[in-house]
Design goal:
By secondary structure, the chain is mostly helical. The chain folds into two domains: 60 residues, no CATH class; 84 residues, no CATH class. The chain contains eight helices and no strands. It is flat and about 50 Å long. The model has no long low-confidence stretch (mean pLDDT 85).
Amino acid sequence: MLHRVVEELNWPAEKLGMHLTVPKNHVQALLQGQVDMVITYEPYISQLKKHGAQVLIDSKVLPGEIVDVLVVNQASWLQYRQLINSLMANQWQQGVAALQNLSNTELMLLQQRVQLNADELTSALSGMQFISYSENQEFLTHKLSHVVNQMNDYLLNTKQIAQAAELKACEQTN
């Protein structure tokens, strides 16, 4: 992500250093001056904005490049393929629907969990795009390999890996 942010903002990469910290420490690291910027996500963005931090770039500039992946080892996939497919298809739709139609109780529980008030949480959720299960399957089929290739190129060029990683979407057929 740092590489892509530097690229998008036309910053000189050689003048930047990297400090890895777990997401729950992003706010503290920036506010205490341990770092000058963080690459983070909600709810930390909203928490940082409360303290006057500015967003320089967001994921809308990098559509399709930030990908959450569920990884299943091959033996489990072969044994539980139908169950995993069923859970993913059903849970995905239910999860997206739940996030788009939060009850007052769910909203309060989520507010406590992410430490945002109702307006901040609503604003954070409105800035997120929740794709449908079919859109996810389309991405896996047609675009995942491009994202993996980009990442491999970067990691190989920066000598962080010696060999390209192979990451394929599981076949959805029985």
